[in-house]
Design brief:
10 strands; globular; 9 helices; alpha/beta; disordered C terminus; 311 residues; five-stranded mixed beta sheet; Nucleotidyltransferase, domain 5; homodimer; 2 domains
Chain lengths: 311, 311
């Protein structure tokens, strides 16, 4: 140990890039690296090298947190724990990401979806510090939702996969959608790749009068409404590449109210909802900081399981 | 107290009827009564009389559990705790049901949605004993969903209102729907009143080849799929008047698989799903027994808060 300070490793495994970091338990970063999400062998080799070399330079790791694109196997009792499931990302199906990255380290490991990790990060250090029931939505390469209930990530049978809910089709939208499983689910209609496939350009390059802005707000407003009705979060935090376009937020809040149809009479939602549907305070780092939180919690859980006799 | 035995009161406030009972903590009923859901004053007077007279005859109540149709105010810190919200049921908006029924009794009160109570009942004594993460869906006068996460009812901002999710419209269905808030949400398209309004008859009187069977299975299959993607329950238990038609179950399981599109590769769902989407084991009594569980838990919580010096 380096004095009182403990260090934790974080790996946010996203659809476009892997964001890796070493931080202390307050979430202060001491090293950071990014790797494009390529084939599993080369991507994981780069990440593994970063973890090993940084921990040599900075100090031994007290825990590692991995937040990974879904679907993933989270049941610790199952043989497939730590393994990536039936993903549309080529080559990544059935990859044991926890074993690949953590076997050189004797420390406890926290493993969850990238979006559950981001929800945890926003809960600990960002836009969800004051609520226990939180939804984090990312809109980027894909669409995903992480859910905290009473401060803890929601798993259940697997974990939420909100990006694959079907919205009602906007009457002006004839685009078939890009999801290889579902075609025109939310991810198929409103993810970054869907926008580019439909409009030939990213949202940020489309003029304010372009119909995609309304489509985008409508579909994401439906996602928020479906989430309110199913999960009843106390706040919805939205991040990811597409959500850096801040003018989406008021448009989404309007469509959320439209789709709820006056049924949910909670002031948090009705009062324009500026605090209810809100940008990620940690921005791009929500995921990787959430992985630090996963690592800290895993280390805490492990030390509670095996108490030492020391102070 | 009558020896060691403790008695609990239960009120399941449903859209069609109020089911009331006195039971012990094992869920054995000692008295039961039903009252049609009419105007609040006369309905609540009947229920109140039952509780007072039964407890005089059987023994003092150690707790009361109320499971009520939504939306309701569940936040114990809020002024509106115990009050019914913006319901489509005439006259019931803003009724303080907890105060109306419980003020004569000094015992602790558990208050939740009728469907969260039913989920709790099935978890304690029915089809969900072996899972902590459970969805209970009722399809009757309305459509509602109760959710347990790690064995505890999900609240968050309010509580789930799954019946008001919008399904994709079945291409053969031109019925506008009966929900006063949303028209063609799930409750508007597939509740008991929606079936009667569309077909002129209840589902049980429609011949097996009637197109409503396929519509009904498709909409409820969508509800199950949306729930899997949002809530990831370990089991879906279905009850309510419409679900007494057992031939719906295999049809719903087929449509669930269709709507998931091969994305959720969990054997629990893929292996025909007979255990995954399953009838309420407590049948019509899921709700009222769940209210007994709410009452028992409220009494337990109260005695943990104010421990006695006795054994």
């Amino acid at each position: 140990m380096n004095g009182d300070r403990r260090y934790f490793g974080a790996v946010e495994a996203g659809g476009t890039k892997f964001v890796c970091a070493i931080a202390d338990e307050r979430g202060v970063l001491h090293a950071e690296a990014r790797f494009p999400t390529a084939d599993p062998a080369s991507t994981l080799a780069g990440v593994s090298r970063f973890l090993i070399e940084s921990s040599r330079a900075i100090g031994p790791l007290s825990g590692i947190g991995i937040g990974c694109f879904g679907p993933i196997h989270l049941d610790k009792q199952a043989a497939k724990y730590g393994v990536i499931g039936n993903t549309p990302k080529k080559g990544w199906n059935n990859i044991d990401i926890v074993r690949a990255l953590c076997s050189p380290f004797p420390c406890p490991v926290g493993f969850d979806t990238d979006v559950n990790a981001a929800a945890l990060g926003e809960h600990r250090w960002g836009a969800g510090k004051d609520v226990g029931s939180l939804l984090y939505v990312t809109v980027g390469t894909g669409i995903g939702g992480g859910v905290l209930v009473e401060g803890l990530p929601l798993h259940g049978l697997m974990h939420p996969e909100l990006g694959h809910l079907y919205p009602r089709r906007h009457p002006a939208d004839t685009f078939p959608g890009v999801c290889p499983f579902h075609g025109d689910c939310l991810e198929g209609l409103a993810s970054g790749p869907a926008i580019v496939a439909r409009c030939g350009n990213e949202l940020k390059h489309l003029e304010p009068g372009h119909p995609q802005w309304d489509l985008q707000a409508d579909y994401l407003g439906q996602l928020c409404a479906q989430s309110v009705l199913a999960l009843s979060p106390q706040r919805i935090v939205m991040g990811g590449g597409v959500m850096t376009e801040r003018r989406l937020f008021p448009l989404i809040r309007q469509r959320l109210l439209h789709w709820l149809g006056g049924y949910v009479e909670r002031n948090e939602i009705l009062d324009a909802g500026e605090d209810y549907v809100t940008p990620a305070a940690l921005g791009e780092r929500a995921g990787v900081l959430g992985c630090i939180a996963l690592a800290v919690d895993a280390a805490g859980a492990a030390s509670r399981r095996y108490p030492t006799s020391g102070p």
